[in-house]
Design brief:
The chain is α+β, with helices and mostly antiparallel strands and about 160 residues long. The protein folds into two domains: about 1-100, no CATH class; about 105-159, no CATH class. It is built from six helices and eight strands; from the N terminus they run ββααααβββααβββ. It has helices spanning about 30-45, 50-55, 60, 65-70, 110-115, 120-130; strands at about 5-10, 25-30, 75-80, 90-95, 100, 135, 135-140, 145-150. The strands form three sheets. The protein has a four-stranded antiparallel β-sheet with strand order 5-4-1-6, covered by helices on one side. α5 runs antiparallel to α6. The longest helix is centred in the N-terminal third of the chain and has 17 residues, at about 30-45. It is globular, with a radius of gyration of 20 Å. The two termini are about 20 Å apart.
Length: about 160
């Protein structure tokens, strides 16, 4: 699963389902997602949607929800918060909409130390901290011609 660093409020408690498992959430609030979906639906209706500009015949074949998906479901979006409120850091897996993969940390330095304590190398940790994201997995041929495989944060270790 790929990982990313998300900004969250310091007291953030990610919601859980009735079985106590984290509920996947996109890193966007519902109102923003719904407004974007509605903007695109309006563009579809008036023919200015980017996909229709390239292929106008799509409008005759598909209703907007058939082409771009149904309106967002509020159960899959985090609460709305401002940048001023989201001052802490948390690692999330992002193959689903996103579930926490670390505790909440007040600083990037604390998060960095936690990653090192989890056994990640300094090289991989520093790259993850810089890019705020790591791929699910990478397969590559090393400079010596050997097949290499690495996953998640440690993908940044490959040469």
């Amino acid at each position: 699963m790929s990982r990313e660093i998300r900004r969250v409020p310091p007291n953030w408690k990610h919601p859980k389902d009735h079985k106590g498992r984290y509920k996947p959430l996109f890193d966007e609030d519902y109102a923003t997602a719904l407004a974007d979906w509605q903007r695109q639906a309006d563009q579809w209706e008036n023919g200015t949607h980017p996909d229709l500009v390239k292929s106008p015949e799509l409008q005759e074949k598909y209703a907007f929800p058939e082409w771009c998906g149904e309106a967002p479901d509020p159960d899959y979006y985090r609460p709305a918060w401002t940048e001023a409120e989201a001052t802490a850091y948390q690692v999330y897996e992002t193959v689903s909409e996103g579930t926490p993969d670390s505790p909440v940390f007040d600083s990037e330095a604390d998060l960095r130390q936690w990653l090192l304590d989890q056994g990640h190398s300094e090289k991989a940790t520093d790259a993850f901290m810089e890019y705020k994201w790591a791929p699910s997995a990478i397969m590559a041929i090393s400079t010596e011609g050997q097949m290499q495989y690495s996953s998640n944060i440690d993908s940044w270790n490959l040469k």
